[in-house]
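re: ur question from yesterday

yeah so i grabbed the chain u mentioned. its 721 aa long if i counted rite. heres the sequnce exactly as i have it in my notes:
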Amino acid sequence: MTHNSSPIRRLLAALLGVVAMLAGSLALPARADDAKPANGKHYVIGTDTTYAPFEMRDPASGDMVGIDMDILRAIAADQGFTVDIKSLGFDAAVQALNARQVDGVMAGMSITPTCAQQYDFTAPYFNSGLQFTSAKGSAYTSLDSLKGKAVAVKTGTAGATYANSVKGKFGFTTTAYGQTADMVNAVAAGQAAAYIEDYPVVKYAIAQGANLQLVGDQIPGGSYGAAVIKGSNPEFLAAFDKGLKNLQDKGDYAKIVQKYLGGDATGMLTQPAKGKHYVIGTDTTFAPFEMRDPKTGDMVGIDMDLLRAIAKQQDFTVEIKSLGFDAAVQALGSKQVDAVMAGMSITDKRKQSYDFSDSYFTSGLQFASVDGSKVKGLDDLKGKVVAVKTGTAGADYAASVKDRYGFTTTAFGQTADMINDVKAGHAAAYVDDFPVVAYAVKQGGGVQTVGDKIIQEGKGDYGVAVLKGTHPEFVQAFNQGLKTLRADGQYDKITAQYLGSAAAGRPTFMKLVSDAMPALLRGLLQTIAVTAIALVIASFIGMLFGFFKVGHNRVLRWLATIYVAIFRGTPLLVQIFFFYFTVPQLTGLKLSAFSAGVLTLALNAGAYMTEIVRGGIQSVDPGQLEASRSLGLPYITSMRKVVLPQALKISTPAFINQFIITLKDTSLVAVIGLAELTYQTQQSIAVNLRSELWLAAAALYFIVITLLTWVSNVVDKKVNK
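ran it thru and got these structure tokens back, copy pasting raw so excuse formatting
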């Protein structure tokens, strides 16, 4: 930013600056490398008085607050020096610096070649920009719309310089004012169609309720830095730069900026996303935005194609984790993923926890029923049930109008589940995002729309979410890439690919199964692998803790008892969520879906196998143990060579049963995105919206379990013959 000043003040500042430069030329300039530590020192820092959100007074306490002030205090605390902040106004602060009445100035001061001749600057702490602004609701929404109109500018600022450089191109005139408030008043009074100011100042004003709107896009601008007289206080510069980096690394910098600018990360200093790798959580069954290609198994859809195109354009890489919406959000909270892109609506409530990218798609809501249904409008839903998806805008809207139209709601986790509930006759209709319903209709999914598309003002915008204060560089790169895709036409091509195609027709059941079979077989192999590894681990655990439960050591018996009680006394699904989502938050140890699935199944099955082993051992005649001990065999040897072989023969049927149960339990790990058979079936149904595929999945489960049972019985006969 370049603040305004009167001609007399500017002349005085220039004279003082010349004096300072002459004085500085008589001494050897100090280098930052040679600077003494700032730790323990005290600095007087001049600042502006009214330049929100960077410097302003807290009405309650009277203290100077804002982005600049909070950053300065945080750096001082980090580096061990103290500051005395002098609120002087920009011009007065610069004059005080030239007169050595303050040690430095931090007042949204732009780092320019001219200023750099007179002052030494810290590293940039904010990348500003310019923004044209008009009255809210006016027709002035682009620079082209300003033709023949007057634009207010602030004397001596970068905004004034820029406006004057482009006024010939866009056909507007400029009128100069002294303060931002004067420009705003000129626009409000109709004396000017728009004004130009630093972007964050405009955004803050809008966030505070100012009756303003943006005109065109942000114009990239300069960077802000703290200034000292050239050659003076190098230790302050070094400490400031070091402290700023520490704030960035800890995430405190982002928190300070977003305290005043909300979720808007524009202007925030970030490390470039180029070359970085991000893990992105997404939904599993939300066609046409995210779904799995049955042939390749890759995640495709509008969201996925946009993400990959932006990653390529911005030169970063992504790993996509297909988890389901709820699980993806939980994974973001536990920092197992860096961001979520899953048709996630940008809402005020969500902004409290997440930072969002710019909107990449504006949706609407649509009620739908089964093809041929008599339900044609919302009035037809009286006394009926409507299926909704948990945590969505559709669920919120249905809840808000259900009393008006006399229906009740039932919640599901996925779109496919809602559709299947309607097809099964449990619900009369469901509500989902309009493009999702449109895709189902086009794919011959056996559904029809109910009523008109529902447009909610200020709602229905999809964005990519990151945890508040994290990965601002990703958000910036995504936004920039999105603008590029829209400008070069790639965005339209991607959306048209999924929303502009005609219905493919309803395939036969055999064709449906044939197309889905490669994905189902991949899932089956994953199911077998998870089951095998989990059972090996569970068998070892069962043997060990089974011995503990029948042993003489009281501590080991209690340990085994507690272990069995925990894993038999809690649902397997809760255990899966605990190890995948909660453990990383408690320990920082991140588990893959495969590792979490295997670990949970092993520990759960191990608890039941512990009881199987205990029961088998206790079924052996105690005289067997007594006889072996009387012959001089140690306890462990007696158990291992005499009791255990007999116990295993007795327990074989129970072990076989547990093997089968564990194989079926693998279906539950689909909730964390492990691509086993159930998960792959869900993915295939999401693409074609045909629940008949569950018959194919059931058949595969039945075949594998039958084979496992046959092999187990053969082994049982040989062991117990």
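noticed a couple things. The domain at 7-125+228-261 is CATH 3.40.190.10 (D-Maltodextrin-Binding Protein; domain 2). also The first helix runs from residue 7 to 25.
anyway ttyl
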